[in-house]
């Protein structure tokens, strides 16, 4: 590239990064009485950032990687440099993060209108976007980890935006604590890499190919970070609880930030993972995908169904990365971002409309419980169409983007199986998860939009305002196949070929995928009026109870034990030592005051008395002279006579 072009690229990257941060800062300095200004400036700045990011990504697509960095600090013998790395993976994330964030910002101006914490909300939203963008373009592990923690902190602020609600505050703390477990592993893995490779630079690490025990340990530790951030088994229960936050926040977390960070990390550093580590990744991804899909089938909360759906789809992405095709994982991350954001914003429109209508009546019911909804296709036809298209893409129906990305994952898993029994189990698991996805999405759409409204017949429900429908329309369009490939049946289009130049294509897999989805659709239709109930699945396999009975109670017992040890033994020992020291000091003080000082004072008193006695002989009083003379004579006589 020419120098001017490189400068232009760097300028565009800087603009895309700085505008969300500027939005966050401006949102804080605006006074509360002028909070409406934030609803204008924040979406505008994010829109400019999105246009800039799309421009630089499309303009440099398929061009060689670009890296810009400078010296940051010295860590022992390791010189840490801070910089950005621009390749096709980064370009995809720039498009996804900025586009979805800009649409969420615009949507939020309608959804969050009148909220008492509008400035705080848009500030956290902008900072969240900045942190995710920094994570995506960072060229070394140290900077990635720095941005990784900022993403976690931002999500804590947004999930707990309505902190006056105990559920929201608890959900924010749960998400933060669960991620700390994973982040601890990530930090250890990063340090192991620094020890073995003597660098944090990702480009430099990719040039060194070595597969030893230390590399496997480092890869598994890094995968712990992915487990926490992308809500994989066993740390998956924080994500459904995070639905206590505002719905636009849920859309951003599930589509373009937070959970996407873990998938992007495993794709970005896939070269570090040894075959042994990848086998572990496959198992965890497949298990998570199945568990979450089963749980989604029995949920009643509108947002929680979508939350478990996200966990399941993330499990499929992890599975794809584990079988050795991170490009398939990246492709599904790209398509999932748009149709999942569309679904969440559509859910937000439903909640917003029904709650608004409910507030005008005397009725009250849970507007997020799908059992209380139904028939909304008549009152909210636009939302119904958008939900249908995005849901079809999530279910993997032909002619939608989700069909192509799931086909890529299925092809990757199929090509990975080489006769091993457990490998075929992974393939079967992937097919089952695909079928369950169709079932719970069909069930969700049927309960919400078909039939008759089951909440309250007198409610007057209307579509959301245009400022909320506009972003949904854009995301709905992005859910069709053209965003991935010009061919509706071949996933190896312009996007996938830019990630994997040796894309394997199998026509049989395409046919099998299409037939399997249609079969799943027929099965889902047969279950449309049946209520699936399972307390075991509804409670996420009782994972929270397991954590409560083991980790929480164990931690509580350990904290009580350490408290008792500290108070009774450590503090008791210190207090005993202090008492002994004080007692000894008092004894020494008494001995000094009454014995040492007493003897000295006694001699002084005696000397003073003797001196006074002798001095009395010379005081000039005749009576005393006579008296002492008489005494002296008497003593002399006694001495001589006796």
TrEMBL record:
GO cellular component terms listed in the entry, alphabetical order: endomembrane system; membrane
Single GO BP term: electron transport coupled proton transport
Keywords: Membrane, Transmembrane, Transmembrane helix
Subcellular localization, as worded in the UniProt entry: Endomembrane system; Membrane
Pfam families: Proton_antipo_M, Proton_antipo_N
Highest rank taxon of the organism: Bacteria
NADH-Ubiquinone oxidoreductase (complex I) chain 5 N-terminal domain residues: 72-122
Membrane topology recorded in Swiss-Prot or TrEMBL: Multi-pass membrane protein
Record-linked InterPro entries: NADHpl_OxRdtase_5_subgr, ND/Mrp_TM, NU5C-like, Proton_antipo_N
Gene Ontology terms, MF aspect: NADH dehydrogenase (ubiquinone) activity; NADH dehydrogenase activity
Domain named NADH:quinone oxidoreductase/Mrp antiporter transmembrane: residues: 138-418
Main localization, broad class: membrane
Transmembrane regions listed in the UniProt entry: 34-56, 92-114, 121-138, 144-163, 175-196, 216-239, 251-271, 277-298, 305-323, 329-354, 382-404, 424-446, 467-487, 507-527, 569-588, 594-615, 622-641
PANTHER family on file: NADH-UBIQUINONE OXIDOREDUCTASE CHAIN 5
Protein name: NADH-quinone oxidoreductase subunit L
